[in-house]
Amino acid sequence: MIRARSRPSLFSPVRWRLAAACRLFVLALVLTAACGFSPAAAQEALRPLVNALGTGGFPERAEAVKALAATGDPKVPEILTYLNDGELYAPKAGGAVYRIASGNTVIDPLTGAPVEGVAAGGLQKIRLNNTLRGAITTAMSQLTLLSPDRDKRFSAAQDILKSADPAQLALVDGALAQEKDNAIKGLLGAARAVMVLRSDHSVEEKKAAIETVAARGNRDALTILTTALAGAPADLVPVIEGKIEGIERQMALWDVAQNIWYGLSLGSVLLLAAIGLAITFGVMGVINMAHGEMVMLGAYTTYVVQQAVATYAPALSTYGLAIAVPTAFLVTGLIGVAIERGIIRFLYGRPLETLLATWGLSLILQQAIRSIFGPTNRQVDNPPWMSGTVDVGGLAVTWNRLWIIVFSIAVFFALLTLLKRSRLGLQMRAVTQNRRMASSMGIRTPYVDALTFGLGSGIAGMAGVALSQIDNVSPNLGQNYIIDSFMVVVFGGVGNLWGTLVGALSLGIANKFLEPYAGAVLGKILILVLIILFIQRRPRGLFALKGRAIEQ
Amino acid sequence: MITEFLLSRHEKKTLVVAALILLAAILVPLANLLAPEGSLLHVPDHLVPLMGKYLCYALLALALDLVWGYCGILSLGHGAFFALGGYAMGMYLMRQIGPRGVYANPLLPDFMVFLNWKELPWYWTGFNHFWFAGLMVLLVPGLLAFVFGWFAFRSRVTGVYLSIITQAMTYALLLAFFRNEMGFGGNNGLTDFKDILGANIQAPETRATLFAMTALLLALSLILSSAIVRSKYGKVLIGVRDAESRTRFLGYRVENMKLFIFTVSAMMAGIAGALYVPQVGIINPGEFAPANSIEVVIWTAVGGRGTLIGPIIGAILVNFGKTIFTAAFPEFWLFALGALFIATTLFLPKGIVGTVMQGSKARAERQKAVAAEKGRTAAQPSQGAAAHETQAAE
């Protein structure tokens, strides 16, 4: 019992997976071989190669595997799978190779027919080592290059490109001639070019190969060219150097783009977290320290919605997130209105006290969530349409980040429309600019305040839905964003949503640009110091409201 | 002249509290060291550093009250000054360990050996002297406050904006001190202290002395603060708090006044930190956490801001409550603290001391009014006396 349990640790899991993969290939190939060509003759041609597997040391056997693969025979993957699974045996002295699958029946690996007159006891298992296993994997991927399944060919082509052993040149040429798919053709072409570079070919051929490799323009291409540079003939050196320089320049550009992308992504998260804060601060002059906890509540609402959907309506699970957005808005919005009516309205005109009271509230909310859901992280799943990556040139764009950017921009413009076009927005702007005057004009400022606070909290809740996709849903979720959100509001200035947008995006991008040079932590410190210095220059932020109303 | 400045014009209650603290400075060590174990008067060993810790917090709250209660600057970064003072003292204590560390390196503290550092960073030089460390306890927080305040007050950053950037300051320092490369022990901070000025830091005598020193410095700071706020300068400071623009238009250099009190307060916080570290035995970046600084604000608010003695009482009360609460119901401490924040701001805006003072003041006025009423009915008052009485009633 104990032995059985300990087996997986003794045998490397990689090997098991490899074996499973091989079996799959075999299945596929056996099926396609049905429409294949005259089996018997081809099999007999294979036999000396198969028998070579049983002779010599590991290097010789690796050679034998390569030779087998080079034939491209559909029977080969099957043989290699047997070898990989340790089912192939040979007499100690060498000679014919047999397969012993189960029990003690000795069978011919090529035909599958039982062999008479050979005792299983006299045979020895053909042992494997890592080199040999590597050779088998490469051989397998070579063979799958000819598979009718496009995805298989694609991944095989990627493998080939990675290893790019010049010995496989003929095989790649063969595959290239048959290949119809352009993406795979590109990969194979690149692989071929790398192989050409690594072997003895004429300068012209190598030049063309350099072009092909350089066209890929990624880090791998750079490594290939750099290694090629070492052993290159004199007249190729300037060509390669030029290409390397070109790739490096291109990659530097992509790096900048990548940083901007990360920065935009971080900025959109900050925007979502800060925008609600900006509204409440702008309209009411209230710094809501519990804002981060509203974000956290939004994230937990997402979790609860996800659980509820999974229990009561599993069919809708893909849309759980879409359901969570309005739910979180409503839940946190209502809590926000309750907070405003219950606490904040008694503290108007005393912003510092409001700050303290909301801080106290944030402690209570955190502890409440910790008591209900426990201190550990909760798992919120990514729906399928939000997971995965898409490559845009040299950029790796993750879907969830992309959706969050889209979402935050949508929220931003929805809010902007609300403020500019709706009656409530008009009233909110009026109260922001001059509370007493607005009040004199008949605007019920307490009502506007409550709705504003609810709106700000609701947006924080929606931010929580978005954050649940990229961050840990824990009771401390809000704490991680609150100081950054303050920085955005202070930097952007209040009473102006555009200020928040510019503030969030520029902080996000600046953060990501500083990170490579200064490290994540130091970069953040630098940003904080820069903001503290910036506040000296513009105490009211980048987009300060102008007018008397501000100096109260 | 300085003594005269320090001893004149104090309110009675300030003097009473200062005297009580001094009394504690004498009695607690005596009760700890001399009273036999098991007697009613005996203070157990573990209580002495705990009470010392409360007094350090009280000093920190007093420092905050100077800027918040009297100048209207709500600093959410006073924990940073406290921690910096603590680190300065911690560095001295680290150097005193000498070759007794785990790696037995005579020069480098353990964490530097662990990081494979070969020599002491330049900013650690001098910290083997107590006087130098003591100077740094004052200078480092003072300098930071001066530079920070110089920029902030000159550009007239006020109100919540100022609070937020002080919070950003302590947050930035928190992140910075977490870094191992800073050379302050990173995440673990400074700990495993052995002795202070040659005396074993764990010994009851040392702890009692530390307690006495803390109480003494707290009493001194209280007297100093009282002297400051009751001087002419202090009166202008209150003017700045209540009507900053008006004070400025009257011709006072508001930014300089703020800068002075901010720096003094930061130094006081630094002293509190320096006294805290040897009694608690560790200083780590957690002290920079923004939440800590906000907690100091609530001690001050509970006790009553702008009263000087209020924050001392508040800090001791809240921390005593915290000790009890976290031991009995650790789950509920945050609920209690949060509720305390809300309740204080909603129902007790003047704090305990402020409310009591208001009550006694109102009572005194009522009594005076009653007395005046009696006087008026008893005899027909002259014009002058009536004027005098109305003035008194006001």
UniProtKB/TrEMBL annotation, chain A:
PROSITE patterns per UniProt: PROKAR_LIPOPROTEIN (PS51257)
UniProt main location, coarse: membrane
InterPro entries: ABC_transp_permease, ABC_UrtB_bac, BCAA_transport_permease
Cell compartment(s), UniProt: Cell membrane
Keyword annotations of the record: Amino-acid transport, Cell membrane, Membrane, Signal, Transmembrane, Transmembrane helix, Transport
TM segment ranges: 260-287, 294-313, 319-339, 351-369, 402-419, 486-510, 516-535
UniProt-recorded Gene Ontology molecular function terms: transmembrane transporter activity
Family: Belongs to the binding-protein-dependent transport system permease family. LivHM subfamily.
Identification of the protein by name: Urea ABC transporter permease subunit UrtB
Organism of provenance: Xaviernesmea rhizosphaerae
From TrEMBL, chain B:
Claim: Thylakoid is one of the keywords in the record: no
InterPro entries: ABC_transp_permease, ABC_transptr_urea_perm_UrtC, LivM-like
Transmembrane segments: 15-35, 47-70, 76-94, 129-153, 160-178, 210-229, 259-277, 297-320, 332-353
Gene Ontology CC terms, in alphabetical order: plasma membrane
Subcellular location: Cell membrane
Main location: membrane
Pfam families: BPD_transp_2 (PF02653)
Gene Ontology terms for molecular function: branched-chain amino acid transmembrane transporter activity
Mode of membrane association: Multi-pass membrane protein
Keyword tags: Cell membrane, Membrane, Transmembrane, Transmembrane helix
Protein's UniProt keywords contain Transmembrane: yes
Region Disordered, residue ranges: 368-394
NCBIfam families per UniProt: urea_trans_UrtC (TIGR03408)
Record protein name field: Urea ABC transporter permease subunit UrtC
Lineage, broadest ranks: Bacteria, Pseudomonadati, Pseudomonadota, Alphaproteobacteria, Hyphomicrobiales
